[in-house]
Design a protein that fits this description.
Largest sheet: 10 strands, mixed
Shape: globular
Oligomer: single chain
Structural class: alpha/beta
CATH topology: Alkaline Phosphatase, subunit A
CATH class: Alpha Beta
Strand order of the largest sheet: 7-6-5-4-8-1-9-10-2-11
Number of helices: 11
Order of helices and strands: EHEEHHEEEEHEHHEHEEEHHEEEEHH
Radius of gyration: 20 Å
CATH superfamily: Alkaline Phosphatase, subunit A
CATH architecture: 3-Layer(aba) Sandwich
Number of strands: 16
Helix content: 25-40%
Length: 433
């Protein structure tokens, strides 16, 4: 019997953690999990922006099949729109695990559509505490406006405290509750850290400037950002302590990742680009996997290529949960690599992003990238920084990868015209990063 804890950081850079080359001591707990587990170094998010990746995680499929994911990301202006959210009828990771006996909980960020049409309880979660929007204040818990954006089991709810700590404390409590009742569980622990606004525990209360504008474009610093990561890491430690104290650590699979690449204060070295980009800095993310009973060689590195939705398939595989026949997963189970970290297999991965009309395909060592009218071909195994464009030297490979991307793209829904129009107006009003 295996329990699952799937932890998602928000806008974390590839090299923000010590175990991925970080230059500051921000992550002793996560580094410890990596030292006793597996670290994937060719792991990617399904999107370079928040909510589309979460659609993919929930469904185990490319996010493009769900209309709401075309918004890239889903904004508060979608409230009341019946099309822009995770439809309750779709099979999801929590609903499929619930159906085979798991207790399911989301503690943290939802960002997959607003009430009354959408919500965690309508998509398989039996318990939820956290914000519904994409970004909220850590102390005021508000999104755009003064009211708290937090919910508790479908009802508006607020309580004083630093949000990262509130999520960590609730997650540790949830582990102890499941230990007491003996239910196997899926805990989705989806932090808002280290996403803006730039607030830390030591601040001790509500910042009036953040209450006026949580985007906080003129705030923050590298030191503040690193502190936010450290406080998230401490919270993960509280959850691990709860597992250890209740005797559940050996039987719990913990996965830690980020929803996309880093933002303005992030460390993505040696990668270039960041959030909103299909360059490596926007989509390559950490994957730390800790499972004492299921990993053959702890403390190892795995080269296998993977992306967010593959972990949906992995958890379902381990739990013995099968999706309905009509719900064909695009994700591929990584379970074989847990037992043999040296094992690799072919795993082409495709992306599309309406911002700058981007497209990308990673297939083996090679990556095809198109940004607006410019095409690139990179040998990522040798050039992770994407500086040496091989497009002119290898026109046949470029043509083959372009054709492969176009065949894939022809199978999925096109970006709706209204989504493109919404993107244009949003970018026109958005301050430069």
């Amino acid at each position: 019997m295996t329990n699952f804890i799937f932890i998602v950081a928000d806008d974390l850079g590839y090299a923000d953690l010590g175990c991925y080359g970080g230059r500051a001591a921000t992550s002793p707990v996560l580094d410890g999990l990596a030292a006793n587990g597996l670290r994937y170094v060719n792991g990617y998010s399904n999107s370079p922006v928040c909510s589309p990746t979460r659609f993919a995680l929930m469904t185990g499929r490319y996010q493009y099949w769900v209309r709401g994911a075309s918004e890239e990301p889903l904004l508060g202006t979608s409230r009341g729109n019946l099309e822009l959210g995770l439809h309750p009828g779709l099979p999801t990771l929590p609903s499929m695990l619930r159906d085979v006996g798991y207790h399911t909980a989301l503690i943290g960020k939802w960002h997959l559509g607003f009430r009354p049409h959408f919500g965690p309880d309508r998509s398989g979660y039996m318990h939820h505490f956290g914000p519904m929007s994409g970004g909220v204040s850590y102390w005021g818990h508000n999104a755009r406006g003064p009211a708290s954006d937090l919910e508790l089991d479908g009802q508006p709810h607020d309580e004083p405290g630093y949000l990262t700590d509130l999520l960590s404390q609730r997650a540790a409590r949830y582990v102890r509750e499941r230990a007491a009742d003996g239910r196997r569980f899926l805990l989705s622990l989806h932090y808002t850290a280290p996403h803006w606004p730039w607030e830390t525990r030591a601040q001790g209360g509500i910042d009036p400037e953040v209450m006026q504008d949580i985007a906080h474009l003129d705030g923050g610093s590298v030191e503040t950002y690193r502190t936010m990561i450290r406080e998230m890491d401490e919270g993960v430690g509280w959850v691990v302590d709860a597992l250890r104290e209740t005797g559940l650590l050996e039987d719990t699979l913990i996965v830690f990742t980020s929803d996309n690449g880093g933002e303005r204060f992030s460390d993505n070295w040696p990668l270039v680009g960041g959030k909103m980009d299909l360059t490596e800095g926007g989509i390559r993310v950490p994957y730390i996997v800790h499972w004492p009973r299921g990993i053959a060689r702890p403390g190892t590195v795995c080269e296998q290529h993977c992306m967010t939705m593959d972990w949906t398939a992995t958890l379902l595989d381990i739990a013995g949960a099968r999706p309905p026949a009509e719900h064909v997963l695009d994700g591929v189970s990584m379970r074989p690599t847990l037992n043999d970290s040296g094992r690799t297999f072919a795993r082409p991965m495709y992306w599309r992003m309406k911002h700058k009309d981007q497209r990308a395909l990673r297939d083996g060592d090679w990556k095809y990238l198109k940004v607006e009218e410019h095409e690139y071909l990179f040998d990522i195994a040798r050039d992770a920084r994407e500086r040496a464009n091989r497009a002119r030297r290898e026109p046949q490979r470029l043509a083959a990868m372009r054709a492969a991307w176009e065949r894939w793209n022809a199978q999925i829904p096109a970006v709706p015209p209204e989504a493109r129009a919404h993107l244009i107006s949003t970018l026109r009003d958005m301050p430069a990063r």
